[in-house]
Specification:
alpha+beta, globular
Length: 259
Amino acid sequence: MFLQSIPFHGTSIAAAKDGETIRVALRPVCEAMGIDYTAQYRRLERTSWAVVAMMAMTGADGKTYEMVTVDRRTFTMWLATIDTTRLKSDRARNLVETFQREAADALDNYFHNGGAINPRATEHQMRALMFQAQAQMELCQAAKGLIHPDHLEAKARIILARGMGEHAELDESRRPLYTQDFLKEKGLSAKQLRSKAPTFGKRLKAAYIDKHGVAPEKRPMNLSNGQVRDVLAYTNQDRDLMETVWAGMNPTPHLAVVA
């Protein structure tokens, strides 16, 4: 998923669209509000209504990070539970209260109405946004040959659409698809994921080479522990191949028919 930086009262909300679900990266929003990420993460882990998931997010720098995310519903409920009277800083208190009042609307405006540009934005602010988009496009140009071309094209489309206040028109078949995300879609537990992922990855790579005659490209992924790992770069075009490999690892049992 491509991480979007949504401008919000001098800070930003890091979020992404996962199908029809809006997901917010927890650590960046905690840091933006000036509250402790670890304490908030532990609170959410203890809460029955919270939907918390580790997702692979691709940032503006073209790198992929494993980030703790919450869905929109959890995000708004979590914000409402923060007791601002316990915050020592007036700035932090005012900012958290602003998040509580307006963050959900900013998310909806950005992902459903094409942007979250403040109608009172000054010419200076608009120029700053334009220069930011220009710098991001230059980064995409510099990353040619280092990053998978499908990813670069998708990122460039997002940057252009954001600058024009529109939705990015992406070719879904060329959207990056990580093996970890594919396996998570199968409803595997963390233990099952650790057990099946190595074998699935090896068989998928072999099937890809057998089909295309070349090995899949690699791209760097930043893990939640700060380490960087090269992972094979698949896209949604390879989903059918993944399904075939998955079916081969999990054959459907045949029932004997007794006459």
